[in-house]
Amino acid sequence: MVGEQPVPREVKAVDTASLLALEERAHELRLNSRLDPALLRAHAAPEGTHYLWPALWNTLSHRPDVPRQLRCELLIALRAGERVVGWLDVLPDDFAPLPRVTSRAEGGEVARFLDRVPPVRDWLLGEDPGRA
């Protein structure tokens, strides 16, 4: 049964262009967890590597035309060298082809960052309180 499919236990690494494409798709589909693509264009490190770690399956029960999504923790590398964490809903067909993190060391580093870096909202409040 589809509902019993486990959440993928793999971390994906994406460049900034790929992250922007995923965010724009989430925005177009009006998925619940997403960031403003304009915010990312302004602040994401252009040559940065960002990471997606699936946490759970999400379904928009009020919108049966939208397939279920993977709700992923998103580790974003910023222009200033900082990192922040957010959430991004990604369709499984968009998630599957993304490059996997294959090094245990890199995966462990991502896990440590996810536990230590501020959420996007807190970063925005510190950056410009009028923007949140």
What is the helix content? 25-40%
Give the low-pLDDT segments. 128-132
Cα gyration radius (Å): 15 Å
Strand content: 15-25%
What is the succession of H and E elements? EHHEEEHHH
- Silhouette: globular
Class derived from helix and strand content = alpha+beta
The major β-sheet equals: 4 strands, antiparallel
Q: Please, how many helices?
A: 5
Mean pLDDT: 89
Protein model, in words:
This protein is of the alpha+beta class and about 130 residues long. The chain has helices at about 15-30, 35-45, 90-95, 105-115, 120-125, and strands spanning about 10-15, 50-60, 70-75, 85-90. Helices cover about 35% and strands about 25% of the residues. The chain has a 4-stranded antiparallel sheet. Strand 3 (about 70-75) and strand 4 form a beta hairpin. It is globular. Residues about 130 have low confidence and may be disordered.
Produce a short descriptive summary.
With about 130 residues, the protein is α+β, with helices and mostly antiparallel strands.
Q: Strands, helices and their partners?
A:
Elements lengths: L11 E4 H13 L8 H7 L5 E10 L10 E9 L5 E8 L1 H4 L8 H13 L3 H8 L5
Antiparallel strand pairs: 1-2, 2-3, 3-4
Summary tags:
disordered C terminus, 4-stranded antiparallel beta sheet, 132 residues, alpha+beta, 23% strand, 4 strands, globular, single chain, 5 helices
